[in-house]
Amino acid sequence: MRTLLEIRNLSVGIERGKDVIPAVRNVNLDIRSGEIVCLVGGSGSGKTVTSLAVLRLIDYEGGRITGGEIIFQEQDIASLAQKEISGIRGRKIAMVTQDPMTALNPVFTIGNQFVEVIRKHKSVSRSEAWDEAIKLLEKVHIPEPASRMKQYPLELSGGMLQRVAIALALACQPELLIADEPTTALDVTIQAQILNLLLELRAEEGMSILFITHHLAVAAEIADKVAVMHEGSIVEQGTVREIFAFPGHWYTKTLVQSKRDLLTSSASEENRQDDEVILEAEGISKAFPLKSKPFQPKRYVQAVDEVSLYIRKGETLGLVGESGSGKSTLGKLLVSLQEADSGQILYRGKDVTGGTKREKKELRKNTQVVFQDTFSALNPRWKVEDIIGEPLRVHTRLSKDEIRERVEEVLQLVDLDPASRTRYPHEFSGGQRQRINIARAIILHPEFLLLDEAVSALDLAVQSKVIDLLKKLQLEMGLSYVFIAHGLDVVRDISHRIGVMYLGRIVEIAPAEELFTRPAHPYTKALLEANPTIDLDRKRERHVLHGEIPSPVNPPAGCHFHTRCLLATEKCRSEAPAMESLIGERAVACHYPLEKKERVELLR
Amino acid sequence: MLYVLSRFGMAAGVILGSVTLVFLIVNILPGDVATLLAGDDVPTETVNQLREKLGLDRPLIVQYLDYVAGLFQGDLGTSYANSEPVLDRLLDNLGPTLALTISSMIVAIVLGLILGILSAVYQNKLLDGIIRVLSLVGVSTPNFWIGILLIWIFSVQLHLLPSIGNGSFEQLILPSIGLGITGAGVITRLIRNSILEASNEPFIRSLRGKGIGHRAILFKHILRHALIPAVTMVGMIFGEMLAGSVVTETVFSRQGLGRLIVDAIDQKDIPIIQGAILFTAAFYVVINMLVDISYRLIDPRIRLNEK
Ligand SMILES: Nc1ncnc2c1ncn2[C@@H]1O[C@H](COP(=O)(O)OP(=O)(O)OP(=O)(O)O)[C@@H](O)[C@H]1O
Ligand code: SF4
Ligand SMILES: [Mg+2]
């Protein structure tokens, strides 16, 4: 194979006022034609800056190439003038960006955006361009492409939009596609679909792909070659097997190790202390009204539909499921941040759904929340001690000195320097800010913590440290957690039991290990199969779940999952399966649970 | 469609509301109109006759209903001062005011767009600095002051343009600039900020990555976004201009609705006051309705969100 792109000693600086801060240093990378190369690394490691430099888009974002060459088809992109690059950009090298929701201009139709790009590069008429666009959409398996052309980006789901963005990038049959975290904003099921699509397109079109991700397992799934980036340099590169089986550089080693730790450990039953049930939900439901036109019947999104569950003292219950399945809403109902429409929530056996103000305040004290966004939860103008101490000021009558003492204590508990209490949030890294959030949540010694995507925004290495902290706190304080996350591996790592949600219902609930090794619900199995893994020997014949989660406004009758289930029968289409207990603590809502081997075979 | 209809309903409601409000204010104000009109030292008899003639002896509610019923037949009453139909007086004065506000609006939009774009393109350069200072001055200086300044420079000192009266195009230039400059300042600042904001949208990066040229990105994609807040602003600026025309017409001795109102207030010519305010309110409402509708054309997200 010939070499398509050769990056030699590339250095890029970002201008900050008068200074130029080096963001990428002496990067060397080759991409051969037809090859998929993954650039892997933590946030801020320089992956995106490198890719923007290849297209010289970095010039528009306050950056400048300070040294080295980018040889593409015998031309050095690094030394071309902006004018000369326009023949390459979009035509020979195309780009797909991270968040499909913001990658397209929201005020133009999909069709218009295609026509603009196609006609920029080819001299064709508007209607020819239109027809070509429809073919491109077909190529990325968009259903009903002709009608999509007339829609606005807002009307499509994230997965669909990412397909559109890929189709748009393919418009001129580029030889190199740069994909910057193209699946990070998507569900695992949709991610698996997009990864498959990219592999398929590579085979059909023979193009090369520079794939950027922070997600090791995704790299392991798709790459031929992996380059690991850390603090602006490529610290190691090699084939997938070389990197994952025999990592050389210390940074790669820690990355691979923290991923392996995730996979092997999972909160075992032994370290749960108690059998006492803290929180219990019985048939709780919540619907949100949709904005509707006058004179039309109100329509509702059934976000949570008749869910029952319990959480013991010192136990973690994980919640997984595709976006919009109702995880966050369920979490908020459990801590009374939102009120259930029906059903009961029992806290230590007492119904709290219709409590008095004082009871509610007491409950708030005992149940705390930590969300994903590490920044917006923290008032930027407050010192850390004010932020962490605030719950004490609201709920107790401690003196200033006592509060300070407690704050220092709790800072130590979350492994932060007690002296840092006088600093401001922006002086901390993402991981440290999440520790501050956790400190604030535990200062009142609550019994129950809702962790909604609490570690999702953090890099893998940081993530595993925060998870360790959460486990330690659980043991020391006997805390119970409801842990919500997109990453299945993380949920497996921290949870004792896991509930799988689909369109507002819990379809399966089971101890973590059992759920991962012997899923009983077809949806659980599909989720697990979509989950990428770095275990190269477990390359399996993947069955990718087709289609997307249906609209929660009008969910399919019977079993909600029947539209995507390979086992669905007439009964499934008309009759909703009830939650039934299997052996031990397992329960599943399916007419034909996969407890028997024949059924598992059927799915293959 | 439903939307457009409901907008019309709302517009009618607003106009009727303002008619009612003005009617109440004018009639509740202290001072007996007939006495005021008749002047001092007139026998009570004459005053009473006048009151009867004007129909002011009837209960307020009857006067109100009579007035509103008249409105629906296009009858806005007759002027106390010279017994002409109010509608005719208004229509005579409508033209000059329309010409003034529309040309001021053009000044505001054209100047605002050009300066705003320049300012954003040359962000933090000298030109941007100059434009930002100018637009700040434009926004914070009162209209009449700018008017007087313009007269002094262009008429008194340079003898370039006429300062007063209406009729010719030249006579329109100075007043439109005087009235339009505040709006121009507001639009300049708004366009500059929204262009800079839109330039940071992630899709701009992907457009560049697709090889779309600089110009197309600025004028098609970025500007379209920047226009969305600017269009809303136009409706508000129009209201300011209607209010400002009262002063501007006085400063430049122009004929127009503004002058008519000022004179009518002097002469306690209540039907004229009411009619002029009705006209102004209707104007304002219509313009804002157009703004709302065009807003939805520019930004499909608004339409889609209602689905
Ligand atoms: N405040 C609200 N008003 C209206 N609809 C809402 C509201 N909150 C949630 N929904 C809807 O309820 C459904 C469930 O949402 P929820 O946020 O609980 O899902 P989730 O599983 O947490 O998704 P994600 O993984 O994206 O966080 C969605 O269809 C959502 O659009
Ligand atoms: S009930 Fe039927 S459709 Fe639903 S998951 Fe089970 S087999 Fe599939
Ligand atoms: Mg959520």
TrEMBL record, chain A:
GO terms for biological process: peptide transport; transmembrane transport. GO terms for molecular function: ATP binding; ATP hydrolysis activity. SMART domains: AAA (SM00382). It comes from the Bacteria. Residues 5-256, 279-528 form the ABC transporter domain. InterPro entries: AAA+_ATPase, ABC_transp_ATP-bind, ABC_transporter-like_ATP-bd, ABC_transporter-like_CS, Oligopep_ABC_C, P-loop_NTPase. Keywords: ATP-binding, Nucleotide-binding, Transport. Pfam families: ABC_tran, oligo_HPY. Belongs to the ABC transporter superfamily. This is Glutathione transport system ATP-binding protein. It comes from Terribacillus saccharophilus.
Automatic annotation (TrEMBL), chain B:
The keyword Transport applies. Residues 94-295 form the ABC transmembrane type-1 domain. It is found in: Cell membrane. The chain crosses the membrane at residues 7-29, 98-121, 133-160, 172-191, 227-252, 272-291. It comes from the Bacteria. GO terms for cellular component: plasma membrane. PROSITE patterns: ABC_TM1. Its main location: membrane. One of its GO terms (biological process) is transmembrane transport. It holds the Pfam family BPD_transp_1. CDD domains: TM_PBP2. It is a multi-pass membrane protein. Keywords: Cell membrane, Membrane, Transmembrane, Transmembrane helix, Transport. Belongs to the binding-protein-dependent transport system permease family. This is Peptide/nickel transport system permease protein.
